[in-house]
Amino acid sequence: MWGLIITLFLGLYALMSFYIGYRGWKMLVQTASCYNRILFWAVFFLLVLPFPAAELGEDVLPASIVTCLTVWGGYSMVAVLYAFLLLLMIDVVRLMDQRVSFLPAYIKEHKKTPLFLAILVASLVLATVAYGGWNARHPVVTEYEVEVNKDAGSMKQLRIAMVSDIHYGSIIRAERLNRLVEMIHETRPDIVLLAGDLTDGRLPPEDARKLAEVLGRIQAPYGTFAVPGNHDRDLREKDSEFMRSLKEAGIRVLKDNYVSVGDSFYLIGRDDPNRRSVPPRLELNELMKGVDSSKPLILLDHQPIDLEKAQASGIDLQLSGHTHRGQIFPANLITGWIYELDWGLLQKGTYHLIVSCGYGTWGPPLRIGNQPEVVSVTLTFK
Questions:
Q1: Shared domain check, 178 and 123
Q2: Which residues are bridge partners to 241 per DSSP?
Q3: For the chain, does the N or the C end have fewer beta carbons within 10 angstroms?
Q4: For residue 99, which phi and psi values (nearest 5 degrees)?
Q5: Do 53 and 176 belong to one domain?
Q6: Do 145 and 129 belong together in one domain?
Q7: Helices marked H in 276-375 — which ranges?
Q8: Distance set, CA 332 to CA 151, 254, 324, 327 (Å)
Q9: CA 374, 329, 274, 137: dihedral to nearest 10 degrees?
Q10: Diameter of the chain by CA atoms?
Q11: What is the CATH number of the domain that holds 197?
Q12: Degrees, nearest 5: CA angle 57-59-63
């Protein structure tokens, strides 16, 4: 299935690249000198080739080259997307003008108009991509306040720090996580919850230990808990180096089990619904057997799905990630269509859902249309 998705996306990418090359040829290069033609095609291929080269050469090229191509290809892939959209908008306006003339003649007939449009498109694309790279490295704290109409014993308030989608790997390294630890401590949490996709895939043992060591520096009175995400392949195996390292660092991974915290509330952690999981994750009502539902119930689930089941099971607060809120505009239109909530706070009766757009990045190391975040929740009990 994943191979089919990659094939379709590469096909769409090839069409966008062809369109950019064709429009660039028609606008600028067709009547240009030989030198300028060579320059155009050199720049064009440097723009469009790194992304497919990284995808297709992952298993045959040296790891260092793949990492460089992945970063470069991430930036250039987004540049191709925005260049395509801008050129498409220009052509739509041009076609509309052919039907109902509204553009001034001096603009349409001026010989410098194609060059001006090309410079405008290139400038907008470069500015947007540069902003996306900067934005991805400047996370913020997003705060929420939630009231739960249940008795939590002597506990009247709970401060939660929640982080999802770190995607530690070839792009997000340990140095990027030092700021994460600082931000979490600045929120002064009582408990820290890691809502999946800690990693970008399977980690070498050294990287697994390094990530666990960084996360182990997080301190909170009630500890740090995590659930697996769809990218956390090392968390599918209970005896993996990453699982052992997290345990040694004092981080408990909840995979379809729950804990009673301070005899005040329950924290329920779900496994990711990966169809290759053996056994598959439990149904929520089966998982919650033995839970005292008169106490506050907090559900940690990587993907914001099965909302009706969570509400029917008496969950008071569900914390999720996974969506990235699309990460790159206009992909948020897709995540907004797929999920009932792809970012923010949703309340249905006594049920609350908070979805984070995540701390790291997957694929392109950019964020456009959203900000990486640490979520801080103040939970008040009756």
A1: no
A2: none
A3: N
A4: -85, -45
A5: no
A6: no
A7: 284-287, 307-312, 332-338
A8: 38, 29, 8, 7
A9: -40
A10: 80
A11: 3.60.21.10
A12: 85
- Say if residue 203 is in the same domain as residue 235: yes
pLDDT of residue 275: 59
70: domain range? 2-135
pLDDT band at 109 (very low <50, low <70, confident <90, very high): confident
Pick the last residue of a domain from 135, 168, 188: 135
| Count of beta carbons in the 10 Å neighbourhood of residue 338 | 12
φ/ψ (deg, to 5) at 274: -80, 130
**Cα separation, 229 vs 84, whole angstroms:** 33
Same domain, 33 and 149: no
Same domain for 6 and 115, yes or no, is yes
132 and 372 Cβ atoms separated by less than 8 Å: no
Q: Strand, helix or coil at 49?
A: coil
Rounded distance, CA 111 to CA 175, Å?
A: 51
**276 Cβ neighbours under 8 A, 6+ residues apart:** 236
Query: Under the phi-then-psi rule, with left for phi > 0, alpha for psi from -120 to 50, and beta for the rest, what region is 91?
Result: alpha
CB-facing half-sphere around the CA of 260: CA atoms within 13 A: 11
Query: Nearest Cα to 83, choosing from 32, 112, 48, 40?
Result: 48
Looking at the fold, whether 160 and 217 belong to one and the same domain comes out as yes
Rounded-to-integer distance, Cα 161 and Cα 220, Å: 9
Q: Rounded CA gap, 268 and 285, in Å?
A: 11
Rounded CA-CA distance 382/374 in Å is 26
Residues 249 and 375 in one domain: yes
Each residue of 31-60: pLDDT tens digit? Answer: 678 888 888 899 999 999 998 888 787 777
Residue 125 and residue 90: Cα distance in Å, rounded? 14
CA-nearest of 133, 165, 310 to 232 is: 165
Instruction: State residue 337 phi and psi, 5-degree precision.
Output: -80, -35
pTM, full prediction: 0.92
Beta strand 265-269 pairing with 257-261: antiparallel
Task: Give the residue from 76, 111, 135 where a domain finishes.
Answer: 135
How many domains does the chain contain in total?
2
In this model, does residue 281 exceed pLDDT 90? no
